[in-house]
């Protein structure tokens, strides 16, 4: 099983920061979440208003990056474009700062979230999308 292995005739699988996705379930340190029971799988980036700092970005850069990404690649492109736009440092009055980055997974019986280091954001986004695809594929 690779990081995010998937071929048309194989189940969607993956591993990320102690989370293991196989053909039947998402295995977390808090317990096992059967694919058919997963109700939430998402990457959450909390952004707050802040003054100058090492992680500063402008609102137009985030919105512009998301818009370009959405036009070119749909929903996943919007997320990626917004993240890429957020790395642009611009001078201006209104600035944003990333406060926290999390992966959140839930079933009716179990909720699990994990803080993600900023350098792992790309992998976290991809893993959340992989879990969503596995859940959709499992239900179809």
Structure characteristics:
single chain, 140 residues, alpha+beta, four-stranded antiparallel beta sheet, 8 strands, 33% helix, elongated, disordered N terminus
SSE layout and pairings?
Elements lengths: L13 E3 L2 E3 L3 E4 L2 E4 L5 E10 L7 E2 H27 L9 E12 L4 E5 L5 H19 L1
Antiparallel strand pairs: 1-2, 2-3, 3-4, 5-7, 6-7, 7-8
Give an account of the 3D structure.
By secondary structure, the chain is α+β, with helices and mostly antiparallel strands. The chain has helices at residues 59-85, 121-139; strands at residues 14-16, 19-21, 25-28, 31-34, 40-49, 57-58, 95-106, 111-115. Strands 1-2-3-4 form a four-stranded antiparallel sheet, with helices on one face. Strands 5, 6, 7 and 8 form a four-stranded antiparallel sheet that branches. A hairpin with a 2-residue loop joins strand 1 (14-16) and strand 2. The longest helix has 27 residues, at 59-85. The protein is elongated, with a radius of gyration of 17 Å.
Q: Briefly, what is this?
A:
The protein is of the alpha+beta class and 140 residues long. It has helices at residues 59-85, 121-139; strands at 14-16, 19-21, 25-28, 31-34, 40-49, 57-58, 95-106, 111-115.
